[in-house]
Specification:
This protein is of the alpha/beta class. It has 16 helices and 26 strands. The strands form 5 sheets. The protein has an 11-stranded mixed beta sheet with strand order 11-10-9-12-8-13-14-15-16-17-18, with helices on both faces. A 6-stranded mixed beta sheet has the order 19-20-24-21-22-23, sandwiched between helices. Strand 10 (141-144) and strand 11 form a beta hairpin. Helix 12 (349-362) packs parallel to helix 13. The termini are far apart.
Amino acid sequence: MKKLKEILYKVPIEGVSGSTGGLVTDITLDSRNVVKNGMFVAINGHDVDGHNYIDEALRLGASSIVCERLPKELHKEAVYIQVSDSRAALGYITNNFFGTPSSQLNLVGITGTNGKTTVATLLFDLFNNQKKKAGLISTVAIRYDNKEFESEHTTPNSIVINQHLRAMVDLGVTHCFMEVSSHGIDQRRIIGLSFIGAVFTNLTHDHLDYHISFKQYRDTKKKLFDGIDKNGFALINIDDKNGRVMLQNCKAKKQTYAMHQYADFKVQVLENQFNGMLLKINQNEVWTKILGEFNAYNLLAVYAAAKLLDEEEWNCLKSISQLKNVPGRFQTHQTSNGIMLIIDYAHTPDALKNVLNTINKIRTQNENLFTIVGCGGNRDKEKRPLIGSTAASLSSKVIFTSDNPRDEEPDKIIQQITAGVNPIDFKKIMCVTLRKEAIKVACQMSKPGDIILIAGKGHENYQEIKGKRYPFDDFKIAKEIFSKIL
């Protein structure tokens, strides 16, 4: 519970109707969750305009309303705070309401197209392995103090973020690693947060249905780095040409990591096998159970960020050797007859290419590589033919199937994927709409020694179809099918 005038600190206010001397018990974006003397923030969203629910919020006991447009009739008992941007206002308000928790721990944001979840999770694991109290806010889950909470978005809304950061601080958490998506930045979900550092992994084709252009996508990511002060650090993958853009006009300490050019932190892959990799990180050799050149970048980012957070080098290297794969990220399982199953979240052309290249570098070429992949509905359609061409060119056999079709027809999505396949690869491809059936077909066609990559959904344990989520876990289903076939 805080005084209204206290939680309006830094909020760009255009006008106030009523007294700001009262108390606020809670903050919500959903009028159905309003409590007595709570604050309702009206957001004009993609599907719903919160301004249409102001009267409902007042009826349920809201005492203060934050809005961009004032209603025609104002209730005498309520306080109205008019702002130009409700989303930005929400960031400052929730930060103040929960006592600026991000400034009381070391908050590190990780952004980029691919690798965010892996880097954030591995940093969380590394610090916890070293007996440090760490927190995680990621696509997969929100975790701290041996607790785990479901995460609906890569970057949650400002209320959820600050609630959890407050709880972390109260429990003695000293470091928090947070995925920062371009949607989260654009929708002002990180406004008001104090980041001690930021990590840029890479930038490839994704989310252009939302951002319209690649430049807009890139420039949105850059805003995370623009907000870090001179006491923080900005760590970027310099092998990606977009990394330099992140550092333009950045006030923070600038640090780089790379595999192929000069950088502050360097990595080299000395050995690459299905049971792990031997890496050389800044002249130190370390064996890791985590696979793939793309994960060499991720592990280097983890090492570099830990060092920039003042962790000892030997402890960092020791912890890296103990880290395990993030669920749904190059997750492997060998069946009883020697077929290798690989589950990966790769759902962009570049991520899929990285995973397939990794597999092709390790395998002997005497076995078949089956790839099962689809594309999500209501998302960037431009990447669909690119997924098709990548999968077909780098696999022995490909089965195009349904992912999360959402409101689209799965068969139409599959047609758009196959449109990108080079004619010389037509003989490699099959189309099986039902995802479970596609996995079953690959299992029936495979022989001992073969490799089956099931890509696109990774850790997800559902399929989203026509507004509903149905239970669906690639890893569990594949293991179940194999246990029946063998």
